[in-house]
Specification:
Blueprint lengths: L2 H11 L4 H19 L2 H5 L2 H5 L4 E10 L5 E12 L5 E7 L5 H17 L5 E7 L8 H15 L8 E4 L6 H15 L19 H18 L9 E4 L4 H12 L3 E7 L2 E4 L6 H13 L4 H8 L2 E4 L10 E3 L9 H9 L4 E3 L8 H9 L3 E3 L1 H4 L1 H16 L5 H23 L8 H19 L4
Parallel strand pairs: 3-4, 3-5, 6-7, 6-10, 10-11, 11-12
Antiparallel strand pairs: 1-2, 2-4, 7-8, 8-9
Helix pairs in contact: 1-2, 2-5, 2-17, 5-17, 6-7, 8-9, 8-15, 8-16, 12-13, 15-16, 16-17
The structure holds NADP nicotinamide-adenine-dinucleotide phosphate.
Length: 444
């Protein structure tokens, strides 16, 4: 495989798509060795075919705000690869959304979904719509307008979207309602639904829970565990909630949460009781920082990231490239032992390089956060079978899947000195499954 040639060609065809090019480069660099052991991959141009999405839908989304004014957003769905199953991947509603970000997320999703052991292809979608500051009625009208276009491209055996940043249970409900009306069927095409209409128990917490199961397994490979560790978490959304809840249950102490404007440091640890308080607060007001800091004696550090705090484990849970080289240096000098990326591509390439050089355990997003889409896969199975499993059943399956992903990463990522390069392991394991499926199915 000629990585330089592939990257140059992509840069010419897709100039400025930096997140997408970053994600492709990382995967190609780590699979090169294995790829070159299979001349049949090169002959079938597997790499060149894999790095381009099957198709991209771009559409306008006009909607009317509460003042009666017409608003216009852009909507997207990127169907990347369906060699091993229907396209599957979340929808992101955030003003930063563009083709590059969705292509990186869709590309990563191919390998993540392959790792879960479930039959799901890779996709991603979303809009530059910002749900923040919008009324409930505005969010509903936007979701309905978005689905009026999207519904033609998706289906339970074709493409199954889910949530991501800015798309939680409320948005999925509105999207699903419009899909059901337009398609005149009730097959559960979106995952992350409420329990009343086909959702799965554990799905809201699954990404964070799965992330902690994976991190604990990483620590266990060196005879350690999460119990007693101090953890920095970034973000303040769905994923951060699940991660904090499970970390606390497993006996660790989470000392930070963050938003785009700074972070909260709570040296006593963010306990289950405090999480309940925050959840109540978040439902009624936007500013949760000052009431939290006042009630629990925590501090808010404006315009800084939580990676300056001395911790054993760092868990990025907000967005891409949120932990850079400087942050990595600081964390390492403060005695960091493990990083679990629960956000997608949470660390910059320079930060990852430092972790690998210093033999810090580093779990990449596509492995660590795969519990979310895995549980979405379990939701699809329950919908298809018209049954619902108990929380304990879903949690046991999630645990089993995370354990299987960990095993695959170790199998393909273990180096001569015993250090496990989880990034390489996850990329190679995910790639091999998809490449073999593509090869078997011919040039299509
Ligand atoms: P979410 O509920 O919308 O929360 C996102 C969090 O990140 C919020 O605290 C948000 O702060 C913060 N954030 C968003 N954009 C940011 C930016 N540009 N700079 C700094 N902070 C930012 O989303 P989520 O579902 O928890 O997703 C978080 C991460 O996990 C994403 O990388 C997502 O792709 C990944 N992930 C999610 C799932 C899932 O099941 N939801 C599965 C796998 C991976 P504000 O609200 O203040 O903006």
């Amino acid at each position: 495989m000629n990585i330089e040639k592939i990257m140059q060609s992509l840069e010419v065809k897709h100039p400025g798509e930096k997140e997408y090019l970053q994600a492709v480069n990382e995967v190609l660099m780590t699979i090169e060795e294995v790829y070159n052991q299979h001349p049949e991959f090169e002959k079938a141009k597997i790499a060149e075919r894999l790095v381009e999405p099957d198709r991209i839908f771009t559409f306008k989304v006009p909607w009317v705000d509460d003042r009666g004014e017409v608003q216009l957003n852009l909507g997207y769905r990127i169907q990347f690869n369906n060699a091993i199953g229907p396209y599957k991947g979340g929808l992101r509603f955030h003003p930063s959304v563009n083709i590059s970000i969705l292509k990186f997320l869709g590309f990563e999703q191919i390998f993540k979904n392959a790792l879960t052991t479930l039959p799901m292809g890779g996709a991603k979608g979303g809009s530059d719509f910002n749900p923040k500051g919008k009324s409930d009625a505005e969010v509903m009208r936007f979701c309905q307008a978005y689905m009026i276009e999207l519904w033609r491209y998706i289906g339970p055996e074709t493409d199954v979207p889910a949530g991501d940043i800015g798309v939680g249970g409320r948005e999925i409900g509105y999207l699903y309602g419009m899909y059901r009306k337009l398609a005149r069927e009730n097959t559960g095409v979106l995952t992350g639904k409420s329990l009343e209409f086909g959702g799965s128990l554990i799905r809201p917490e699954a990404t964070g829970f799965g992330g902690l199961y994976f991190v604990n397994q990483m620590l266990e490979t060196s005879g350690d565990s999460i119990s007693g560790k101090t953890i920095a978490v970034s973000g303040f959304g769905n994923v951060a909630w699940g991660a904090i809840t499970k970390a606390t249950q497993m006996g660790a102490k989470v000392v930070t949460i963050s938003g785009p404007d700074g972070y909260i440091y709570d040296e006593n640890g963010i306990s289950a009781e405090k999480i309940d308080y925050l959840l109540d607060l978040r439902a009624t007001c936007n500013d949760i920082v000052s009431p939290y800091a006042e009630k629990f004696g925590a501090v808010f550090i404006p315009n800084r990231r939580p990676w300056e705090v001395k911790v054993d484990i760092a868990l990025p849970c907000a967005t891409q490239n949120e932990l850079d080289e400087m942050d990595a240096k600081l964390l390492i000098s403060n005695g960091l032992i493990c990083v679990g990326e629960i956000s997608n591509m949470g660390c910059t390439p320079e930060a990852i390089e430092l972790f690998l050089e210093n033999k810090i355990m580093y779990g990449p997003g596509k492995a660590v956060n795969a519990g979310g889409v895995a549980t979405s896969g379990l939701e699809m199975t329950q919908n298809a079978m018209h049954i619902s499993w108990t929380a304990a059943e879903v949690d046991a399956k999630l645990h089993q899947i995370m354990s299987e992903i960990h095993t695959q990463c170790v199998k393909y990522g273990r180096e001569k000195d015993g250090y496990v390069n989880y990034m390489k392991g996850a990329n190679v394991a995910g790639f091999l499954k998809v490449a073999k499926a593509m090869l078997a199915q011919g040039i299509i």
